[in-house]
Design a protein that fits this description.
The protein is α+β, with helices and mostly antiparallel strands and 390 residues long. It contains nine helices and 26 strands.
Length: 390
């Protein structure tokens, strides 16, 4: 019996003692316990000088830099304090409101590692060609995004403007095909390193957070050849406010469904994850993307990213790419769900294809935990606002 008085702080709920994600609220660094938050700064004396200084910081940045041994030590102490019978001196519970982006995003890389998604997009954009390009099954495809437009869950998303193709030629204006991408993000930390092996990569991932990489499909379709995504992607990427430690997913590991890969991408122990995502559009669940179907794991993505000498640094955010499964109700974007706008989605009796101003999208996820428990990933949510509303 824990001292924490929250009916959701239990093993069969997403944010019980098996999860304990980190975030930053006005009171400083906190861990989520059920539907409340436990600020850690008032508990600094319970952690000792080194850990106490880290939990008293204004953001997770110093903790991200500290590395895996420190992360493990801190998590063990947090579990001990949260599950104690009596409340530790200085402990109090507060609301989850006003959580901020908990770390400074150093670099942002978005991958493209769902075969189902890539094949769907290929069929939509290149109906007369092969759905997958020849390199796709061999290399974790990705692109560098803009760290400066990564925003915390709950931040409104202003409809982007850009060039769009029309029968009369290109025009500039607000996107008419605004979309989502349901993704899983990995927050990096530890010493700055390059040329990681997949086995080393896990020591450079602090935790996991859901991502919505908002996408303007009409802008993207006009600009992406020959160099790939640019304005159609760079306007906003939403990330959850609470980061679930990687250690919480110890029993959720699965083997990615790929075949042979080049030696530098071979995993000694696979780092695919059995995460079950859900996408809600204006409160209606429209998709359940399965992350276990991803072709490449985050460990392989980091190994490839750093294979040319590029570094992995504290604060790097690595996104998985859109998560999609083989069934229509497992597709992680509205581009796929509506098949390029040709197969409308029934939303409360109204046929819809892409996002309209005022629409809200919420993505959640869970994973299996130890002893039958349920590990949660905090929601990532955003509402679309018109381009002239600031």
């Amino acid at each position: 019996m824990s001292w924490i008085d929250d009916p959701q702080f239990r093993a069969d709920a997403p944010f019980g003692p098996q999860t304990l994600p980190y975030g930053v609220i006005p009171a400083g660094i906190a861990v989520r316990v059920g539907d409340q938050a436990l600020p850690l700064r008032p508990l600094a004396d319970h952690f000792g000088p080194r850990l106490g200084e880290l939990v008293a910081a204004d953001s997770l940045d110093p903790l991200l830099a500290a590395g895996r041994p420190v992360w493990s030590e801190l998590r063990a102490r947090v579990v001990e304090l949260a599950t104690a019978v009596s409340a530790p001196r200085g402990a109090s519970l507060v609301g989850l409101d006003d959580a901020v982006l908990p770390f400074r995003v150093a670099d942002y890389v978005d991958f493209y590692s769902s075969r189902h998604h890539a094949e769907n997009v290929g069929r939509i954009f290149r109906p007369d060609g092969d759905p997958l390009l020849p390199n796709w099954t061999h290399i974790p495809i990705g692109y560098h995004g803009r760290a400066g437009t990564v925003v915390v869950s709950g931040t409104d998303v202003v409809r982007p403007s850009g060039q769009r193709k029309t029968p009369e030629g290109p025009v500039f204006g607000p996107s008419q095909r605004l979309d989502i991408e349901a993704e899983v993000g990995f927050v990096c930390g530890g010493p700055v390193r390059s040329r990681l092996t997949p086995s080393q990569a896990a020591d450079h991932v602090f935790g996991v957070a859901l991502v919505n990489d908002w996408s303007a499909r009409d802008i993207q379709a006009w600009e992406y050849v020959p160099l790939g995504p640019f304005l159609g992607k760079s306007f906003a990427t939403s990330v959850a406010a609470w980061i679930t430690p990687l250690e919480a997913f110890a029993v959720a590991r699965v083997a990615p469904p790929h075949g042979d890969v080049l030696p530098y991408l071979v995993e000694e122990k696979p780092w695919g994850l059995d995460l079950a995502l859900e996408v809600e559009w204006n409160g209606v669940r429209v998709s359940r993307p399965p992350f276990r179907e991803m072709f490449f794991s985050f460990a392989q993505q980091l190994a490839h990213l750093s294979s040319n000498g590029a570094t992995v640094r504290p604060g790097d955010l690595i996104a998985s790419g859109t998560v999609s499964g083989p069934s229509r109700d497992e597709r992680g974007s509205f581009l796929e769900l509506s098949w390029g706008g040709t197969e409308p989605i029934a939303l409360d009796g109204v046929e819809r294809t892409f996002l309209e101003d005022g629409d809200t999208v919420r993505i959640t996820a869970t994973a299996p935990g130890e002893d039958g428990s349920l590990v949660g990933l905090a929601e990532v949510v955003g509402t679309v606002r018109p381009v002239d509303e600031r």
